[in-house]
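Summary of Year 1 activities. Much of the first year was spent building the evaluation harness for sequence design. The harness presents a backbone, in tokenized form, and records the residue chosen at every position. We chose the following record to illustrate the format because it has been used consistently in internal testing since the harness was completed.
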């Protein structure tokens, strides 16, 4: 994705904030909550966690007991997330404006890094993964969830699901033809297969790379470790 497309994507993501959770729940028929729980159960049991692309804080608020840093390039996302996430936690989570590709953290800062429904939007995924590896402690764990394709046929079903099911509902809720959720379909079309990112994670130097397509086939969870 070019810089101009990415800037347009960011404007559209910002426009989703008021209806983000509602449309996600409908789009995934309630499965997104289960997928978030799967990510939570895969996080390292101790130590500091970084969520890359925290959006409006939907996942971050599910881990109130963890030492947490939330990163996102959109200031409005961070401001909404901070109010929501820090209303019930002590010490508060930190909120940082940056991109995955260029993170303002020291090497080896986190035991765990997670990214939920954001990896698809990174403009340079390889550079972002290399940054994640840099900021993880040796042995630290990365968990990503996003809707990847298993193959071309599965990709077509995914495309139709987003275009018709999600797009139709978003159009109804947002009451506009040119609604921001159209970008979900665009980023999905450009996103690779589950195997593409297994290979990329290995190429970047992660080990124990695993992927699992989660029921009912709309999303993939990847896990990987930084070598000791
Ligand atoms: C769909 S939201 C995900 C929200 C949240 N993680 C959740 O669990 O629902 C995707 C987020 O990724 C962020 N994002 C897009 N490109 C990014 C990048 N290059 N680096 C980090 N975050 C990015 C967007 O700003 C947006 O807030």
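For this record, the design step produced the sequence shown next.
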């Amino acid at each position: 994705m070019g810089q101009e497309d990415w800037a347009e994507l960011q404007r559209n993501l910002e426009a989703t904030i008021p209806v983000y959770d509602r449309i996600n729940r409908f789009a995934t028929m309630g499965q997104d909550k289960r997928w978030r729980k799967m990510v939570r159960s895969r996080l390292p049991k101790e130590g500091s966690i970084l969520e890359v692309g925290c959006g409006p804080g939907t996942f971050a608020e599910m881990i109130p007991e963890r030492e947490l840093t939330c990163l996102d390039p959109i200031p409005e996302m961070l401001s909404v997330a901070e109010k929501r996430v820090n209303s019930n936690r002590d010490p508060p989570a930190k909120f940082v404006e940056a991109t995955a590709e260029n993170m303002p953290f020291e090497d080896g800062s986190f035991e765990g890094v997670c990214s939920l429904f954001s990896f698809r939007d990174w403009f340079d995924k390889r550079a972002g993964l290399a940054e994640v590896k840099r900021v993880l402690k040796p042995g630290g764990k990365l968990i990503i969830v996003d809707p990847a394709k298993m193959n071309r046929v599965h990709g077509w079903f995914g495309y139709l699901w987003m275009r018709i099911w999600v797009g139709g509902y978003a159009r109804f809720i947002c009451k506009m033809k040119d609604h921001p959720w159209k970008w979900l379909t665009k980023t999905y079309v450009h996103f690779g297969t589950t195997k593409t990112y297994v290979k990329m994670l290995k190429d970047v130097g992660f080990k124990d790379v695993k992927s699992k397509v989660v029921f009912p086939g709309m999303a993939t969870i990847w896990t990987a470790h930084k070598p000791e």
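DSSP finds eight helices and seven strands in the chain. Quantitative recovery figures across the full test set are reported in Table 2.
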